[in-house]
Amino acid sequence: MPRILQYLLLPFSWLYGLVVTVRNYLYDTQVFATYQAPIPVICVGNLSVGGTGKTPQVEYLARLYKGKNIAILSRGYKRQTKGFVLGNEQATALSLGDEPFQYLQSLPYVKVAVCEKRAEGIQKLLALYHDLDLILLDDAFQHRAVKASFYLLLTDFGRLFTQDFLLPAGRLREPRNGAKRADAIVVTKCPESLSLQEQQAITQEIQEFSRAEIPVFFSRVRYGQAVGFGSGLTLSKKLVLVTGIVNATPLVEYLREQHYEILQHFEEADHAEYSPARIEEIYTYWTRVVDKDYVSIVMTQKDAVKWQQPANAQLMSEVPLFYVPIVNEFWPHVPSFDEYLQVAITGEGFHINS
User: Fold this and answer.
1) Helix/strand/coil (H, E, C) string of 204-221?
2) E-strand stretches of 111-255
3) Whole-prediction pTM value?
4) Which has the closest alpha carbon to 77: 56, 61, 58, 101?
5) CA atoms within 13 A of residue 291's CA, in its CB half-sphere
6) What pLDDT does residue 352 have?
7) Which domains does the chain have, with CATH numbers?
8) 80: Cβ contacts below 8 Å, ≥ 6 apart
């Protein structure tokens, strides 16, 4: 956003900030009621709009506690349903939303549900599954109607909340001091070259807004081996890339570093819906490529879940389609992220059943 436009929008940001501050005060002073579940609830969220790496972080937590009875509850952004919906064999990205459907595919041992009202969603999950040990709330840092057991705040290395403005001048959903609710903070999408000195400087900057005793962890994205969901068995060195995410640059750079040639990049908006016409356009481009038998269509897992629809069955049987999965990896820290989380949870007077 141009700096002059940002300055012109600042009065609206101040007004928005006042409204959010009053709302938070009413929750903090218990004028507005909150619901607390009888089992541990870990909330993963951020202060800004847009992608900060919540999906790989939620998946990381689900894998960390694999062996427990876990449920993930999300709002289900851009789904075509309303109310509480439970993930099952009939679910699609349209009924659950992109990320929840991805959880359903990637984490078969986890219950997945969506509900706009998280308190209602938690209560329905507990009514359905009496043996739940843990609930992970996806993108619920501002959902104050639920009081979580542990708040994990994420901030993108490329756009730290400390250097951002409130909507509409910036991307912050609430003032920076909202970080005081966090029990731990993770700086996501860090570059490989991040030094200890840079980590210390960023930590100091963040702790101006958070509680002083709260640790700041640093994580980076690791790309996994491409997974085929079409006719291809091996990812070709020539690619047609399809992305519908906030920032595709890291994936583009990774593929090029791995010596893949990107013939065409169909760069869509975040949470792109991929109409039949758009999919047909991408398919048509692939059919016209010289030596198309040696060219794969590759995308993120978030995009792939929207292509895996019954209507696209014929296309998937003909086209070498792949997605590149991502996982979180943490920089060394004492204590480690895993160790801190378990100690913090136990120390708060609740424990995930052994």
Assistant:
1) HHHCCCCCCCCCEEEEEE
2) 111-114, 134-138, 150-156, 184-188, 216-223, 227-228, 238-243
3) 0.90
4) 101
5) 7
6) 56
7) 3-222+331-347 (3.40.50.300), 227-324 (3.40.50)
8) 94, 95
Q: Burial code of 195-229, b = ≥16 C-beta within 10 A, e = fewer?
A: eeeebeebbeebbebbeeebbbbbbbbebeebebb
Other CB atoms within 10 A of residue 275 CB: 9
Residue 313's pLDDT is what? 87
Residues 6 or more apart from 207 whose CB is under 8 A from it?
A: 214, 216
Q: At what angle do helices 98-106 and 54-64 cross, to 10 degrees?
A: 30
Task: Quote the tokens at residue 97.
Answer: 């939303």
- For the chain, the helix, strand and coil percentages under 3-state DSSP, each to the nearest 5: 40, 25, 40
Structure tokens, 96: 């659950």
Give the residue among 288, 15, 331, 285 at the shortest CA–CA distance from 188.
Answer: 331
Q: How many CA atoms lie within 13 A of 302 on its CB side?
A: 24
Tens of pLDDT along 135-175? 999 999 999 999 999 999 999 999 999 999 999 999 999 99
256-292 tens-digit pLDDT:
999 999 999 999 988 888 999 999 999 999 999 988 8
